[in-house]
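Agenda item 2: flavin-adenine dinucleotide complex prediction
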Amino acid sequence: MTTTPYWLDRPLDPVGSAVAKPKVDVVVIGAGVTGCSCALALAERGLSVRLLDTNAVASGASGRNGGFALGGGAMSYLDARSRLGTAGARQLWQLADLGLDRLESLAGDAFRRVGSLRLAADRAELETIEAEGEALREDGFAVEAAGSLPPVLAGLYAGAIRYPRDGAVDPPRWVRRLAARAATVGVEIVERRPVEADALDAFDAVVVVATDGLIASLLPELATHVVAVRGQMLATAPLAELRFPHPHYAREGFDYWQQLPDGRLLIGGCRDQDVGNEYTASDATTGAVQREIEQLATRLVGHLPPVTHRWSGAWGETADLLPLVGRVPGRDRIWVAGGYSGHGNVLGLVCGELLARAIVGETAAGIELFDPTRFG
Ligand SMILES: Cc1cc2nc3c(=O)[nH]c(=O)nc-3n(C[C@H](O)[C@H](O)[C@H](O)COP(=O)(O)OP(=O)(O)OC[C@H]3O[C@@H](n4cnc5c(N)ncnc54)[C@H](O)[C@@H]3O)c2cc1C
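Presented output:
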């Protein structure tokens, strides 16, 4: 069976490129959502930009993920409040809300504003998510009661809450659209151009490292701050019935799934079942985790539908689940954005743009939440 993600196993639109210039102001390494967002924002501000990727645009996590476009950060709102204070948590959630609106304005039909359903595996998790919902409401964010769950979910979960502002993206279609937009405002896009760590200082330009799970291979000094984590998924043939028309996630996000409009189930997670082996940037799939995902699919559908694709991808995780966005400590011309801890579809767009603002010296409100020096 192929380990090509379902998303990438389809014809995708070309992204194009602006004509190459002999010298550019900024080299952006990594053409996922972060790099494309940063390159676009820099070019819109008049800088000349070259965007390089080892592979194709959106071939990393940005083309391999669950397609959930969620508000907020990777941690719960209650954790964010206790770590960042109410003002900091609110600012993070507001940034993500604005990011969702920006994504909607740029992605066209690669984004569907269908909301998301957060499910609780047991009473204890239900109490936690209800408390989180209450805190979000207090601070002005949209959360709804899920009402009575359909029978299959009611049999498996203790309850749920709904986030109406969330949505579903078609990840590589969206990110390649973002790249195409960047190309039209002057970004030179060079695919299949790997960059080695020792080349970073040799660029006669400002350098942006936007490689999320692979940040440490270019910036070894950040190896303890951003670690690679593997996420695995599978896709099934279309189901006869559309039961999960929006993103669903459960067990603190360890399980996640959605059906696409054609009925296909895309489901992933379960890495906590073999956690020791999932701290890796390897893009192999493993029997241990795939079997757990199959069992989850079986519980949700009543039988295991034919599996058409199995794949994995890596994201960058930080100890406090907040990304690193800013100038790399000790390196004058090198900047970084990544480490979204598995929650980068919206924050990658936001942080790429924040980084571009910081590079040109504009106010980048909120970037201080992601200070790369915070781990010392
Ligand atoms: C299985 C899975 C499910 C996920 N589900 C979700 C989800 O539902 N919602 C959500 O918000 N987030 C999700 N995520 C996380 C999300 O995909 C990432 O946080 C986000 O895509 C990061 O984007 P990025 O542009 O920073 O990095 P990437 O998309 O990983 O892009 C980095 C790029 O850098 C390139 N690169 C790396 N090293 C080099 C080098 N040396 N030289 C040149 N190029 C290089 C890579 O080829 C890659 O294209 C998931 C991730 C995975 C793996």
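Discussion summary: The chain has a mean pLDDT of 96.
Owner for follow-up: CH.
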